[in-house]
TrEMBL record:
Signal peptide coordinates: 1-21
Domain Superoxide dismutase copper/zinc binding: 51-172
InterPro entries named among the record's database cross-references: Cu-only_SOD (IPR053257), SOD-like_Cu/Zn_dom_sf (IPR036423), SOD_Cu_Zn_dom (IPR001424)
Species this protein is from: Dactylellina haptotyla (strain CBS 200.50)
GO biological process, one term: superoxide metabolic process
Alphabetical keyword list: Signal
Name the UniProt record assigns to this protein: Superoxide dismutase copper/zinc binding domain-containing protein
Length: 235
């Protein structure tokens, strides 16, 4: 985030022809068989389950996201985003850096959901809506195609392996976070235990560590049966 803002200012100072950041292009060639996922939980966010797959025409990414058991002490509605860096072994959500923002749009002014190409690529709740207040006890799910996310590692908008999801409270405090990792085709979480990570192209520096995610994902996988049961009722 800091990198994005300063880079944008530098571009303006250098007399770049465009003052505003570039719009995000629609992505192509995202195979429907490619699946990435993020699963995490902690004391503030009891369940978070996101599933990212390609689309039949290859444009964009189908996101299925479910959240539940967010404690009432943390006020919503809750924003959630794709952040630039992985969650380190100590589960420190601050270490995930800013939002995935390869086109240097920054988060001011706020994302206009009616012009999603102008939003930060990683601002999922800005484009598709925040997690509502009523998830303190219930599981809440949403599903949408985001045309600006990519499952291809060469794309700037690639969401896999070095990225993470962060859930915030209404005051933007980071409540919980988890890594986005490749899933086995057709299998929930089967391959995520030892997925390797690489530093993100737009990361602000800092270590990109892969340790730590495996243990949490493994532990969270135990709760998936219950989550899926609820999700199945909602869909
Ligand atoms: C969490 O990460 C941030 C950013 O890297 C760092 O400044 C902070 O000291 C870390 N907090 C803890 C408790 O390690
Ligand atoms: C993710 O969602 C897609 C589309 O609904 C589904 O085909 C796939 O099995 C799911 N994968 C996981 C790991 O949840
Ligand atoms: C990943 O885990 C599988 C299953 O435990 C194992 O067979 C494989 O060797 C591991 N790969 C790496 C790179 O650690
Ligand atoms: Cu965020």
């Amino acid at each position: 985030m800091h990198f994005s803002k300063s880079a944008a200012l530098l571009a303006v100072a250098a007399g770049a022809s465009v003052v505003s950041a570039a719009d995000a292009p629609e992505t192509q060639g995202n195979a429907a068989t490619t699946v990435y996922e993020a699963r995490f939980s902690n004391a503030d966010v009891g369940n978070a389950y996101l599933n990212f797959t390609g689309t039949p025409d290859g444009v964009g990414v189908l996101v299925t996201a479910c959240f539940g058991n967010i404690v009432a002490a943390q006020a919503g509605p809750y924003p959630y985003h794709i952040h630039q860096m992985v969650v380190p072994a100590d589960n420190n959500c601050t270490a995930t850096g800013g939002h995935l923002d390869p086109y240097m749009r920054t988060d001011e002014p706020p994302c206009d959901a009616n012009a999603p190409q102008t939003c930060e690529v990683g601002d999922l709740s800005g484009k598709h809506g925040k997690i509502p207040l009523d998830v303190n006890t219930a599981m809440w799910c949403t599903s949408y195609v985001d045309k600006f996310l990519s499952l291809k590692s060469d794309d700037q908008a690639f969401i896999g392996n070095s990225r993470s999801i962060v859930v915030h409270n209404a005051e933007k405090v980071r409540l919980a976070c988890g890594n986005i990792v490749a899933a086995a085709a057709g299998g929930m979480g089967a391959s995520s235990a030892n997925t390797t990570t690489t530093p993100g192209a737009t990361s602000t520096g800092g270590p990109a560590v892969s340790t730590g995610a495996a243990g949490r994902i493994g532990a969270n996988a135990l709760a998936l049966g219950g989550i899926l049961g609820v999700a199945a009722m909602l869909f």
